[in-house]
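Good morning C.,

I know you're traveling, so I'll keep this short. The sequence:
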Amino acid sequence: MLDSLQTTKRTNYWLIGITLPLVALGVAFEQWYAFLIPPALFVVWLTLYRLDWAMWFVVLATPLSVTLEDLTGGSGLSVPTEPMLVLITFITLVKMFFFEEYDKRILRHPISMAIYLYLAWMGLTSITSELPLVSLKQWVSRIWFVIPYYFVLAHLFLKNDRNKEIFLWLFLVPLVIATLYTLYVHSQYGFTKKTSTWVMFPVFKEHTSYGAVLAMFYPAALYLAFRKSSWGINAVAILLLVILTVATVLSYTRAAWLSLVGAGLVYMVYVLKLSRTQVWSLTFLALLIAGLNYSYIASKFERNRTDSSDNLNEHVASVTNVSTDASNLERINRWNSAIRMFKDRPMLGHGPGTYMFLYAPYQKPSEKTIISTNAGNRGNAHSEYLGPMAESGIFGLLMLLYIIYQVVLNAVVSYRRLPTIRHQGLLRVAFLGLITYYLHGFLNNFLDMDKASAPFWGFTAIIAVLSIRSKSKTDTST
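The tokens, ready to paste straight into the viewer:
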């Protein structure tokens, strides 16, 4: 212990000895960026000696991070989170491989194994990519999201049970602060649908990613508001829930609303305590009814001329408008382009992150909309499933689906085995949050953003840790 303290003191002296002269030189030559050196060195020290504090700071900062565009050849960088995520990833990998400071149960978990396959195939298709540099950046950035938000958080969750709720609070509070900023700006424009697409900038790029994150954390807000706790904490949580509800409605994000409806249906399975046989039977029955009435449903969609608007009823009704709604038609254009790209290179795809640079020639003139571009420079495939399929081939899609399969399997199997109602509640929160994104993934894809990656991989880590807990003979919670 004494040697450790002496080493820490020597490190502190070295940092001070380096920092002060550099700042002094910066002031002397009017290079004011030198004032960034002390906080940067503090971040390095924090990550080296208190990785848990560094990770909690990243979680706290993620909902409020700002993306700087046009950096390093066109890619954006979220600050302050991504530089810290890179450092945390490096330190974690060193500890994993050289010091073995990591719980083997997490490293060998089936969900973790699925993630290894996913990242390995993504790495392979980065090598075979049509734009290798773009794909390599995409792959590396995915790694520095997965390792901190999944592996580091899983380690913290397994180390101390209370850390799961700390994670929920640390993300929810700044997320609500982001919504308050958005609501304030939105109020200056009368809460109109037209302005709802950009009023969250620069905290979020636009309303669809904003709505997706709100939906993902809505089950967590419900859980914190109505779980057994002191009246003061419950009152604060209820207030946060009310703000989140208003923000979700005024985001005008139809995909987020639909994903919450889907999560609500899954929650009814828990409430009604339906068996797996009953769930599969009801699912099969619903698909059978939809299949038998396909022609009627398709004709209703084709006759729907309700465009998105400020009227919430009309905005909801416009979800099925595939005739005149530009947003819906553009999604179909992107999906069809992704399918054609997949058919062109079905095994290895065109390379991770390349869709937005390569989809333009795969558009058909008859499918273009008023918001389409010939350059094809306005975003991604609008699908978390078709995007990887076009970029990494059929196995890119299968690897992602395998992660989802393992998450669902472990969530279902572990639920009844968990030792306490509190553990079951946390598993429900994580699972329902992920359900919103799995459904949202049919319409959008945001896993290249820190704000969506944090809850996605964080909830996945909660399920992995709770499945480990369910297999333990004794409850080791603290």
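Safe travels,
E.
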